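**Folding the chain**
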Amino acid sequence: MTFEHPASPGQEDVSQAPEPRRGQPWHRRFGLGAAGFEATRRAFFLGVLSLILLIPLGMIEDLVRERESRKSEVETEITAQWGGPQTVVGPILAVPYRYVTEAGSDATQRTATSTLFFLPKSLDIAATAKAERRAKSIYQVLVYGGTAKLTGSFAGLAKPRADIPPEMIDWSGAKLLVGISDLSSLRSITMALGQQPPVGADGVQQESLLSSSLAVAMPLSAADIQKPVEFAVSLDFRGSSALDFAPLGDDTKIALDADWPHPDFSGRS
């Protein structure tokens, strides 16, 4: 048996009393609890973080550009003192000749002077290059010291051109030319032609017939030009970045011995 006591007049049944109404959370009042807010908040924070990271990235880029600019300046300074890219051209045989111009009003013939250029029939180039490093501060520049020996011959000198009479060619004024792009880095040179003794740097002069060229007087006789005329040129030079040879001969052979750490070759065989 159970006994239930009636509630007293001042007493209420708590179990059946309605629950008090709770107010809406504050963040929902501003739409912060709406669907998609979490993804928006994450995207916002990622954007802010990306902007913050751009500051050190910009500082790093500025440092890289400054270092690149400084390295370029150091390379320019060192190569200006040591030597730049070298291009060896030649040898070329230059011979003056006379030709007749139009007759004047007095019916007399006038002559002018020009130059014939002979390229080698055969050209053999044996060159060496030894790499070195020159440093300034934290920067290093790769340079080289090189030597080259050019041998071969000129042929067909007796009949150079059908429109030039042989008597108009002055073989006594013949010159042997060799071009090198950076003359300031040339340490020594020796040039020889035919049976004539070699001529060293003391007898070599700059020549305006070709850009950046050196010349030595090598007079020839009528007997010399009847057969191939051999030549020999020795060069000792310095340079950087590149070493090029112009294949001027009808038959050109080039042999290069170098310890360059990352060689690259250009040209046609």
